[in-house]
Amino acid sequence: MSHLSGLHPISRRALLGGFAASSALVVLHPFAARAANNQAHLRIMETTDIHVHVFPYDYYADKPNDTLGLARTASLIDGIRAEAGNSMLIDNGDFLQGNPLGDYVAYERGMKEGDKHPVISAMNVLGYDVGTMGNHEFNYGLDFLNKVLAGAGFPFVCANLTKGMLASDPKKDELMFKPYVIIEKRIRDGSGATSPIKVGFIGFVPPQIMTWDAKNLEGKAQTRDIVDAAKAWVPVMKEEGADIVIALSHSGIDGTGQSERMENASLYLAGVEGIDAIFTGHQHLVFPGPKDFDGIAGADAKKGTLMGKPAVMGGFWGSHMGLIDLLLEKDGSSWKIISSTSEARPIYHRDDNRKIVADVKDKPEVLAAAKADHDATLAYVRRAVGKTSAPLYSYFALVADDPSVQIVSNAQAWYIKQMLKDGEYKDLPVLSAAAPFKAGGRGGPDYFTDVAAGDIAIKNVADLYLYPNTVQAVLITGAQVKNWLEMSAGMFNQVKAGAKDAVLLNDGFPSYNYDVIDGVTYQIDLSQPVRFDKDGKLINQDANRIVDLSFDGKPIDPAQKFVVVTNNYRAGGGGKFPEIAGDKVIFVAPDTNRDVIVRYIVDQGTINPSADANWSFKPLADTTAVFESGPKGRQYAAAVKGAKIEDAGDGENGFAKFRLVL
Ligand code: MN
Ligand code: MG
Question: Name one GO molecular function term (predicted).
């Protein structure tokens, strides 16, 4: 995607060797190739949202992964530098947290004064010019952060984070970091001569860190609106002689209109006078590029501009290198931008069979810088970090309340209560929705969660939560809670009372859409037809599979308001659950459900995942239904609470068959 050949077919020029040390064919950026005597090409490279991914390794799956890793992105750098007349390298934040390597250093190894953090050691190898703060930099507290940053061989900027209260004038804010730096360097022009330039970099963090990291920041910090801070500081940078001003915006692109303390403010930041180019991030998306940002007024996702200024978002976890290329022209003693391009260059692609193919190799120096902590992390993810007092398995997750779903629910509820504790929703009841991800089906008879009682390791969390979703919460009514569950109940075929060995599960309904909602109690009446079709359309007005739905021991009030914590997929309308969509979302967490489960286990030490049997099937006289599950489930069948399950022999393709006595 977005290679140079597509951007500049005419001025594309190749030369052998050139700036590169190797004799590989280097395609000069057209700006470098065509810069005249009074012109210079400046390329600025961005990494963003690295989240401690130095090695191309998925620690949860405990295996290599070609879609991520700074060691891969880094090996793009040499080639990219060779294509450019002059280059700089920046990081756009969220480097410190987000995988088990980060958790290992924070929770196990620790940071003493003078210690080096592995992600910083890796970054130091690459010669960054400057970095900014992402929201996740604050997850482990300010002390930890300060010790980490002390090891960096480059400065950090952030213009909208203060130490205390906000001043009446943003320029009087007592800031936690330098708001900006102006880097003086010499650049080579088209004639080969060098002359000085002052490149200003100013950084921004989402103001929401005051909520997301309240426990680390309350009373110690405050945040200011991104655009307000830019309007105050950019003119100061110009006064100090910055030839060009580059925004390092750890904030995404949201075209729904500017608002106060906006989380994804990069589009409106681009509108601030004096800013010449914008590096964005935080959303873990790719800009420019197909699909992610189509149809946003002011954003050109083909050209890579926001409000007409060059902008880029370099994916996440090292998946892409963000590039902004500027053709500068000398204007008296200063430089001005006369042309620009932007590009997000990937480290891998998918072949015709959608198989992932790595486009680059590891840069060995980067791996070496983090190797010791990487090895320690491998041991860490394989070692016990907590205990589970009951086995965690999903063999019967579709027929009874289940421990592997229960623990996800419990962790989500634990998390969201902390997040909402001081806000306007603090007095509302919290429900938690979670679905079994590993429940056989096409995954086969071994495709189930199965963690024995006793020690629980970090890598087991991947088993509990398969997808890198993030936590979100919605605000809905009791009536909408019931419809949510009615939709879930599409998991089952209708079973007539008196039927023998009816086929229970609806093959066309994915298990990840079988949400169990904790915090309420209910039964599912299988004798009823479904209320909604697979698109959430009401098809049986009089059908009610969900019966005896109660909250706090009393029938649920259809008008009562509830907070339901779930994931970004469901809250965003995934699965087409009736009325559940983005307009109901009241909380968008920066944290993955997986991270929340890890924190919950570390916090609790011993977890008690026994299902609370808050749902069951409504008894039907003389009725049985059959379903398939993994044969390893046989050992647990008799112990399942809230459902009577019998062994019914072997199923097909290695599955075991079970009978549910309704
Ligand atoms: Mn991020
Ligand atoms: Mg439960």
Answer: metal ion binding
pLDDT of residue 25: 62
| Residue range(s) occupied by CATH 3.60.21.10 in the chain | 2-19+40-376
The beta strand positions in 491-570, using DSSP E, are: 502-503, 516-518, 521-524, 546-551, 554-555, 561-567
Please give the distance, rounded to the nearest whole angstrom, from the Cα atom of residue 402 to the centre of ligand 2.
7
C-alpha 52 – ligand 1 centre gap (Å): 10
CA proximity to 584, closest of 472, 489, 435: 472
3-state secondary structure (DSSP) of residue 312: strand
Distance, in Å, from the CA atom of 537 to the CA atom of 546, rounded to the nearest integer, reads 17
The pTM is what? Answer: 0.80
For residue 230, what pLDDT is reported?
A: 98
Q: At what angle do helices 364-382 and 118-126 cross, to 10 degrees?
A: 170
Q: Is 352 helix (H, G, I), strand (E, B) or coil?
A: coil
Distance, in Å, from the CA atom of 398 to the CA atom of 321, rounded to the nearest integer, reads 43
DSSP 380: H
SS3 541: coil
Neighbours of 136 (CB within 10 A): 26
32 pLDDT band (50/70/90 cuts)?
Answer: confident
Per-residue pLDDT tens for 422-463? 899 999 999 999 999 888 877 788 889 888 889 988 888 877
Task: Compute how many other C-beta atoms are within 10 angstroms of the C-beta atom of residue 94.
Answer: 27
Residues with CB under 5 A from ligand 2 (ion): 401, 406, 518, 612, 614
CA of 277 to the centre of ligand 2 (A): 50
Q: Name the CATH topology of 2-19+40-376.
A: Purple Acid Phosphatase; chain A, domain 2 (3.60.21)
Ligand 2 centroid vs 607 CA: distance in angstroms?
14
Residue 276: how many CB atoms within 10 A of its CB? 22
Q: Which CATH superfamily is domain 383-661 in?
A: 5'-Nucleotidase, C-terminal domain (3.90.780.10)
